[in-house]
Amino acid sequence: RTQSVSQSLHKSREKEVVTLVEARRAQNLTILLSKLKTSYEEIKVLVLQMDEEEIPQDMLEQLLKYTPQSDEMELLESHSHGEEVERFSTADRFLFEVGHIPHYEQRLETLYFKRKFVDAVDEVQPKIKSLIFASQQVQTSNKLRKLLELVLLFGNYMNTGMRSNAYGFRISSLNKMVDTKAGSSGTRYNLLNFTVQVIEDRFPELLNIDEDLSYVKEAWRCNIPEVEKDVSKLRLGLSNIKKELNFQANRPSRSFGDRYVEVMGDFMEIADGIFADVETKIKTMKEEYVKAVELFGEDTKIASEEFFGIFNTFLVQFSESRAENIAARRKKEEEEKKHRQLEDAKLREKEIKAKRKARNAAKAAGEFDDLVSALRSGDLYEKKESDKKSAKKQAGAAAPPVARKSIGGRTRIDSDNTRERR
User: Fold this and answer.
1) Contacts of 241 (CB under 8 A, 6+ apart)
2) pLDDT, tens digit, for every residue of 6-35?
3) pTM of the model
4) What angle do CA 41, 67, 76 make, to 5 degrees?
């Protein structure tokens, strides 16, 4: 990262500023320091005091990118005689000053770890908890045991005559139940739909099996090697702090305002207890997982996301099959309701027609009876004569006036319909 003195020594005609470190690195560091708006003297004091509140996390991350390298310090030391230090550029002077803080880089690294420790623990703890509880749930759930018995029963029944009864099956077979279709090709009804239907009818207490396996979904998202890796990082970080504490505590003299031992010592008293609890839980997690895997006859090398993924997939399929069954029943009920309504409408129409026919038949029968009675009594003929007389009277009343004329001793009566001559 360094250049020869002849290549890296730059003098400003006005300020006579000297830059010794690599030009691009010096430029980037100068930009960083201008953004931080903190002088190298202030940064030096903050690092010595291990003032976590005054050194934000983003500042720590940036400072860790620009820690003095051994070759840079050698070059800066070789040009630090007399007033030459005052001519150093901003980047050179910063590296020169912080480079004289004992274990400057280790201080920043351990302070950064301290800031991240609680967040790292909070991130790994839920994963450990989910893996422990999920392992225990699949071991102790009576609902899961009963459901597996039903699946085994159905499997043996379906294979009757083909092979002897099985005493168990691979749990991965649970996810294949949806592939065992019923009836003709194209039907959606499968073995899991049938199993859910039997459970709904005869074992309704098994319908909420997901409550017994509530941590399976979270455990499915966890990877045990990754969790162990996260815990190893915590272990290594605490180990580095212990080493640095030992180094700082045994130094013959400390700089004024150096509080590394006090600050990090207090932190370790708390962190050790927290991490001891994490290590206890990680041990329990691995033990419970092995017991769960062995209980179901699986290889202990099976990945946790694969093992719990089988149960998670089954729970999802179980829920979907139950929803499908409910939808199918509702559809059937709607179809039956429409069929009943159609049949009722046909029946009502048939009844109306029958009633109308009966009324017409009754009316016709009544008229016929009246006619026979009238014939027998003679009323029918009298009624006809009466009707004729009435008709004549009505015709005479409706006739227009008659005009009388006398023509040659003869009288002619003219009307619209008659003519009389005498």
Assistant:
1) 110, 113, 114, 264, 267, 268, 271
2) 444 444 444 577 788 888 999 999 998 888
3) 0.72
4) 75
